[in-house]
Design a protein that fits this description.
261 residues, alpha/beta, Rossmann fold, 5-stranded parallel beta sheet, 10% strand, binds zinc ion, Helicase_Restrict-Modif_Enz, helicase, Helicase-related protein
Length: 261
């Protein structure tokens, strides 16, 4: 879905504070958009009027710093601009919930997150078991959201730069631009760099092997295609292969390597 497909008719701002909400509404009005702000300073009479106007379509922008829970009933709202960072999952879900309600003729909803909330709580598509109509029940076991950013400041193995999309944490490739994760070009600048690169490479070999059905001989050949192998590189390989004693195996591999050298 793109902004173009979504009628920018019913927008909701969530601002940081009263001044911010007022300023956002003011700016929207300057752009020729029928906008109002609802804050704790708004007179009850005005508040009622703004909410009524918004529900009937006479207002297209509503800015607020709270959650507009009391007396707010506008399932047609389809765009939310999050300008307020929140650590509370419930507040996040309430903000999202403003545009996720079904309404006749409504095809989609657009969430524009200017506050980085998606990094703290995850993408709306990935939040499971949300009962928004029942007050926004927090999903269980919430730690960090299982997402990562497709990097725009880093090149992958093929020299490709990412696209800044958010993708599931375990993606090996960005589904939007094809960026390959964990395959940075090896830049052998010193032993330490080499060591981390070897470990990353070994992990990558296993990922590729799993993906393309390569066997253990392929893996072993790949391992020995690396230079400056250390005992801990072998140990990682042994661990990933599922050996019972990867430490001991790594020790003997190192002995063999030294003899060959
Ligand atoms: Zn990407």
């Amino acid at each position: 879905m793109s902004i173009r497909d979504s009628p920018l008719t019913d927008l909701q701002y969530f601002a940081v504070n009263i001044e911010h909400a007022e300023a956002l509404a003011e700016e929207a009005r300057r752009q020729g958009i029928k906008a109002q702000a609802i804050t704790s300073l708004t007179a009850p009479k005005d508040r009622e009027k703004f909410l009524g106007d918004y529900a009937s379509g006479h207002l297209t922008f509503l800015a607020s710093c709270g959650c507009l829970s009391v007396g707010f009933d506008a399932p047609h709202a389809s765009v939310v601009l999050m300008c307020r960072p929140t650590k509370s999952l419930i507040v996040y879900l309430q903000q999202l919930g403003r545009v996720l309600r079904p309404s006749l003729g409504k095809k989609d909803a657009l969430v524009l997150d200017f506050a980085g909330n998606v990094f703290a709580h995850g993408r709306v598509e990935d939040i499971k078991d949300i009962a928004l109509d029942h007050g926004g029940v927090a999903p269980k076991g919430t730690g960090k959201p299982p997402i990562k950013l497709c990097p725009t400041s880093q090149k992958d193995r093929d020299g490709k730069v990412g696209c800044s999309a958010l993708v599931p944490l375990f993606s090996s490739q960005c589904r939007h631009c094809g960026y390959l994760f964990g395959k940075q070009k090896a830049t052998p600048t010193g032993q330490l760099q080499q060591a981390t690169n070897n470990k990353a490479a070994i992990r990558q070999f296993f990922a590729v092997a799993k993906q393309q059905g390569k066997d253990k001989r392929w893996l072993y050949a790949k391992l020995h295609s690396l230079s400056n192998l250390t005992q801990s590189d072998f140990e990682l390989y042994g661990t990933l292969r599922g050996y019972k004693k990867p430490k001991g195996w790594a020790y003997y591999q190192m002995q063999e390597l030294k003899q060959r050298a």
